[in-house]
Amino acid sequence: MLFRNRFLLLLALAALLAFVSLSLQFFHLIPVSVAKNGMDSKSRKRIMPDPVTEPPVMDPIYEALLYCNIPSVAERSMEGHAPHHFKLVSVHVFIRHGDRYPLYVIPKTKRPEIDCTLVANRKPYHPKLEAFVSHMAKGSGTSLESPLHSLPLYPSHPLCEMGELTQTGVVQHLQNGQLLRDIYLKKHKLLPSDWSPDQLYLETTGKSRTLQSGLALLYGFLPDFDWKKIYFRHQPSALFCSGNCYCPVRNQYLEKEQRRQYLLRLKNSQLERTYGEMARIVDVPTKQLRAANPIDSMLCHFCHNVSFPCTKNGCIDMEHFKVIKMHQIEDERERQEKKLYLGYALLGAHPILNQTVGRMQRAAEGRREELFALYSAHDVTLSPVLSALGLTEARFPRFAARLIFELWQDREKPGEHAVRILYNGVDVTFHTSFCQDHHRRSPKPMCPLENLVRFVKRDMFVALGGSTNYYDACHKEGF
Ligand SMILES: *[C@@H]1O[C@H](CO)[C@@H](O)[C@H](O)[C@H]1NC(C)=O
Ligand SMILES: *[C@@H]1O[C@H](CO)[C@@H](O)[C@H](O)[C@H]1NC(C)=O
User: Fold this and answer.
1) Which helix (H) or strand (E) holds 173?
2) Coiled-coil annotation: which residues (predicted)?
3) What confidence tens digit (pLDDT) does each residue in 270-319 have?
4) CB of 270 shorter than 6 A to ligand 1
5) What contacts 24+ positions apart, CB below 8 Å, involve 39-44?
6) Is the peptide bond before 147 cis (omega within 30 degrees of 0)?
7) What is the pLDDT of residues 25-46, one digit of tens each?
8) Ligand 2 atom with the shortest distance to the CA of 351
9) Longest dimension (CA), the chain
10) Closest ligand to the CA of 1
11) What mean pLDDT comes out for the span 340-364?
12) What are the beta bridge partners of residue 100?
């Protein structure tokens, strides 16, 4: 009972915070003192501090609530903000799928009872929910590249299947889509009312949760779209690296990064003790429990206000949750400080950034194709892109996170194009590694397209020990 009351309070608090605060969705604003494990974090910048809403110390519950991204009242966002003489040319949207059922089960416990059917009298609700379902029911396989057409177009199981998108996940992306519609279509007229199929570029990985998230966003963006005019491409790789996935050096960085992660875990005796206790409760070896990645399942309990599982030996509880969540936060922080992940991220994100830059350059040349691009993806897609861009303060991608690149033309100097980059509605353009200085030297409200192009075509690799292109950086001897 105590647990439930606390939950109620926390969820109410979450709704309030989501409304009041915007910047805290994005940055770790906390003035980090000397952290545990001897990690000195004083070098971390505080960006856009918001002393009113941000808790004074890193709070695992607060962070978990941001991660859940529980839909609430209309969110403020900075997308589409530009001076009058700027014209919006193209928009490139990267999303993480919405709230989903866990991918793992906690051994020997009942899995959480979450209903994945979409119904009006259950929260969270969106006014377009029923219309979305009936529109999906009319969906046609010709709009989807093989093997996507074997996937269901919306979630429908009374007891969610593993990894299935939930109603919360659908609502999150209907909201995202509607928000982007208001800004990009109604305000900036990105697409003409008789838009043609080649003005959209849609791509998703082959999971039902990413396809359905992409469709929900698209439905919010273009309600009752003509199925004959849309085409979702299938991306086999979570890195969206298409024909350029082979990169041995990237894998070497990843192995080193995983080693770092392992060593950090070993240092955390409180974490080991917590896993031990939980393993005793569910009566499996600690190793087996850890391998079942219990935080994934616990987050589902947490985000859905379902109490943690119990056995005859006791209950998994909020204290266990806090310890594991806190470790995740510390891991994330160390990951950004030690540069191994950056190496992985630069190589992992290059192909998709290169593709995006190519699309922007064609749009800047006046081609009227692929003006709106949507990539429906995973945390393991967004996370390397954020790191590669130099957004080290960015929070780990929450459910239904969105990362957006906007391309603008200066009408007063039609030859000049500029980009804005937004993460969950926050303008992070001048936090990227390729546009930090620009902010100080120029009064311009955005970043020249050339900066992004130069970064993606060349400077990304300089950071990796002097290579000049992707192929060399991926095959460097003696790494
Ligand atoms: C959480 O669950 C409890 C009991 O199951 C319920 O009374 C409460 O309203 C729920 N809170 C929210 C915010 O849904
Ligand atoms: C980068 O994009 C160009 C076209 O814009 C393409 O020719 C090239 O193969 C791409 N390189 C990589 C590594 O993705």
Assistant:
1) helix 167-180
2) none
3) 999 999 999 999 999 999 999 999 999 999 999 999 999 999 999 999 99
4) no
5) 39/330, 39/333, 39/334, 39/337, 41/333, 41/337, 44/393
6) yes
7) 333 322 223 233 333 333 333 3
8) 14
9) 72
10) 1
11) 97
12) 165
